[in-house]
Design goal:
The chain is an alpha+beta fold. Helices cover 39% and strands 19% of the residues. It catalyses: a quinone + sn-glycerol 3-phosphate = dihydroxyacetone phosphate + a quinol.
Length: 691
Amino acid sequence: MQISIMTSDVFFSVPVLPSRQAQLTALRATQEFDVLVVGGGATGSGCALDAVTRDLKTALVERDDFSSGTSSRSTKLIHGGVRYLQKAIVKLDYEQYMMVKEALHERSNLLNIAPHLTALLPIMLPIYKWWQLPYYWAGIKIYDLVAGAQCLKSSYILTKTKALELFPMLKRDKLVGAIVYYDGQHNDARMNLAIALTAARYGAAIANYTEVVHLLKRVDPQMGKERVCGARCRDVITGQEFDVRAKCVINATGPFTDALRKMDDQKNPNICQPSAGVHIVIPGYYSPDNMGLLDPATSDGRVIFFLPWEKMTIAGTTDTPTEITPHPIPMEEDINFILTEVRNYLSPDVEVRRGDVLAAWSGIRPLVTNPNSKDTQSICRNHIVHISDSGLVTIAGGKWTTYRSMAEDTLDAAVKAHNLSAGPSKTVGLMLEGAKDWTPTMYIRLVQDYGLEVEVAQHLASSYGGRAYEVAKMAHVTGKRWPIVGKRLVSEFPYIESEVQYAIKEYACTAIDVIARRTRLGFLNVQAAEEALPRIVDIMGKQLTWSEQRKREELSAAKQFLYYEMGYKARSEQLTDTSEITLTPAEVGRYMKRFHKFDKENKGFITTVDVQRVLESINVYIDADTLHEILNEVDLNKNGQVEFNEFLQLMSAVKKGQVSANRLAILMKTAEQSLDQTEKPVSVDRSGGGV
């Protein structure tokens, strides 16, 4: 186990990150920790970092992966909350005002302590009524003033012409002008991981896939009451159980807050009122590279953000009551609501198609009622810290941006309640994993020293910061003239194979950990993620000595994750064997002609053999496995062939925008044009494909 040393306010840590096995050994072998944190999301990881940097002996357990829940499913903003400030002013609500002020302070700190994972993002507020201009301008200026010296950049007004120049996709009809203000943006899952890894480097014993079976209690001889003194834990991967003893246990389990509270006392009332927030990802061409959009008043009064992220466009969120589940599913109703709102703000020239949704996810926001309050039905706008009669410390509510101050408040309360020997919090300005040695131009050194592609080097620098050199050193030679090293997992994304190896050092235990949280491929494009899975499983299998059975299980579990939690299910439901065909007779005739170029024997269906024969005649060669995948996307009854009716259902769905960039449709059209013109077609790779 690594040792951290504290001298005054300066911390030193051994650079080698302990393995997960070493962390589990530390959890078992340590006689008693000062603090045991349950939950590895942003808040739980923040609590562990706050505790260990106060020189408290710290442990953290997470039953799934770090950031596997709500913390990886946010809007990716680091913000004070413009809408909260609006409510604070309109309702003269001092509590909301202070919440915004605190969040703006934390926004500034987070941008400073993890510069590689964060960036300033200008966000445009389009104005379509003259009276709204002074109203929103005043509100945004107050937002700047509340930030004070920590204001990122001053907001400003744009004319209609300038607004359309910066955001050409914007609807121009009745546009008066726009206001631009600044907030922060981050890679939420990797930020969460950076917090957890930083805690580990300072000496915290942290372990993912380690669940709490039940809380340990002992009778306090002085008070005569039962007190929580640790937890019985189970390694989810091996099934082994062990006790972790601690003077103080912190419940930082987000939406699952009540489950741990009831482990403490079955009589405890529920305080969590979960709300589901759905986001969608659509291609990057829907928004400018460096300008977001805010819809301050949707048709049902909610706020929708439309933001560039990882060279894609993210839109969301919804806010609907939901059941608590570890595997929330994005619903078609919510996806269509977001698409409808986006259409209201974009030019009619931009066709917003359902088929362009590349990924979709739902995150559960843990709204809470305050058990310390007499009015237990009222939703608490800020976070709450509660200490039970048995000493269990619960931190709940709040928002991503304020994770650090939430952790500070939690540890302050824990230190006081349990008489722990610790000073004040030291996490303001404490640099996170990867921040050291990062510079905005370090990617150039990665290109020059290792022979990486520029796009890959930029991605590694922004994802791993100073640790990117370690990932680059692990990269394999490509055998090409350029790039020299760095084999991509999929052609259109900058993720490389060595990231899978490095992910294991970052405690990745499953293929889902890699596609969802170490890389963000599953959140950006589910089809690309599915395509990368076999290679990811192969690499992990070699590193972790998985059996063939385990590899099959990993592949299956990851596909299930993409299907249900990342929107693949919603995508597949856009094209079914009951899909209505809405084609004109002329269109049916045109598609029949195209189909018969492949179905020479008039069988009424085509197979991979038929498609391969046509492609070879025009000198296009696609391997059999890829061809099978392409046909399987359209083979609705899964009988190994595509019937003419299935082809018509596909083309009808393409016409309606429910399906876009379908490989078979593009392939057959390109082949038909080539056969008609006797010209070699443009080679068709796997396209972006929507969900």
